[in-house]
Amino acid sequence: MMSRKIFIGEHLRSAMKMRNVSESELSRRTQLAQQLISKYRNNVTVPTATSLILMAVALDCSVDFLITGKEHKPEEVKQDGMC
């Protein structure tokens, strides 16, 4: 099985820049340690699902954007009843 590297840090930096949010501000909004956010931004560690959700809400973006770097419009999402 091939390993696929996820560049969450790159996407997190992009979302923070688009919203003009610093690490300290994101830390305040999410209650995550600023050092932890720094580790996410620098791809030192991978965020938990909970951390991804907190950051997405705080940055007004989707978890999908933080993972893939792509924002999907609601009409692009298949409505097949599957999660």
Could you characterize the architecture of this molecule?
By secondary structure, this protein is mainly alpha-helical. It has a single domain (about 10-70), classed as 434 Repressor (Amino-terminal Domain), CATH 1.10.260. The chain is built from 5 helices and no strands. The radius of gyration is 13 Å and the shape is globular. The two termini are about 25 Å apart. The model has no long low-confidence stretch (mean pLDDT about 85).
Biggest sheet: strands, sense, closure? Answer: none
Q: Count of DSSP E strands?
A: 0
Mean pLDDT, to the nearest integer, reads 85
Tally of discrete structural domains: 1
- What would you report as the Rg, rounded to the nearest angstrom? 13 Å
What is the CATH superfamily label?
A: lambda repressor-like DNA-binding domains
Please report the number of helical segments. Answer: 5
CATH architectural type: Orthogonal Bundle
Distance between the termini: 24 Å
Which percent bin holds the helix content?
A: 40-55%
Which sequence of SSEs, written as H and E, runs from N to C? HHHHH
In one word, what is the shape?
globular
β-strand percent reads under 5%
Low-confidence stretches: none
The CATH class turns out to be: Mainly Alpha
List the keywords.
54% helix; 5 helices; 83 residues; 434 Repressor (Amino-terminal Domain); mainly alpha
